[in-house]
Design a protein that fits this description.
Chains A, B: Belongs to the Nudix hydrolase family. Two copies of one chain form a homodimer. Chain A is an alpha+beta fold. Helices cover about 20% and strands about 35% of the residues of chain A. Chain A has a single domain (about 15-140), classed as Alpha-Beta Complex (Nucleoside Triphosphate Pyrophosphohydrolase), CATH 3.90.79.
């Protein structure tokens, strides 16, 4: 097997349609470097024997308390340089909830909050790009 | 950074539309274990600092001689157990050529050949599943 210096993470874009006009997504405030105190998608390192979608659901639950049962893969985001710690490839997912579920930051997250998709804070890593991609996929799925 | 035992590969499904009825794809015959002598998508291990799509194009060139300039990501295929050597996640791409380009097996490939998509040989790893997914994406892009 090739000896690579590449780590794998999963991230999840959870949508909540608050009204016909307003989409919200769930973000967490990072407790640790890099991007400490910035907002990011809930996510983290995949475990060695964990299916991709299980990693996404586990990290979501650990960081926000939110448990969802179905997530759908978007694609991999893996540009070299997207993570200042070293090469990291994120497999990104999306999911949906149908009410504004109570969430609470825990584990690697100081806080967890629903944000209006059209009014997002500064985002860690390439998460802005992941969210843009997820928004297109969500809208095409729902159209 | 997490210490993971997960390797990253890229694979590429190259389509050639031979007629309005017939799609072909490019496969390679594996020179090495696992799945030695079986047919598979051109692909292999990503280099540490290599963008994902560059990995897909490099492996395609190395194994078949075919150089293509644009590849499009399908998604990651990463079920534990898909590779008998250990956990491997493949980021899969698709591309297209507009004539039945001459190809030749080299590097890790003993042979390279165009196959009718509706008449494929036994395939290594989960490449049958990757091809099924690619076929849907290709057909929806072209419809």
């Amino acid at each position: 097997m090739a000896k690579q210096k590449i780590a794998i993470t999963t991230d999840c874009v959870v949508f909540y349609k608050a009204s016909s006009e307003k989409l919200k997504i769930l973000l967490v405030e990072r407790k640790n470097e890099p991007f400490k105190n910035d907002w990011a998608l809930p996510g983290g390192f995949l475990e060695d024997e964990e299916p991709l979608e299980e990693g996404a659901k586990r990290e979501l639950k650990e960081e926000t308390g939110l448990q969802i049962f179905e997530v759908y893969q978007l694609r991999a985001f893996g540009n070299p340089g997207r993570d200042p710690r070293g090469r990291t490839i994120s497999i990104a997912f999306w999911g949906e909830v149908f009410s504004e579920e109570k969430v609470e930051g825990s584990d690697d997250a100081k806080d967890a909050k629903w944000f209006d998709l059209e009014n997002l804070p500064e985002l860690a890593f390439d998460h802005k790009q992941i969210i843009e991609f997820a928004k297109k996929v969500y809208k095409s799925e729902k159209s």
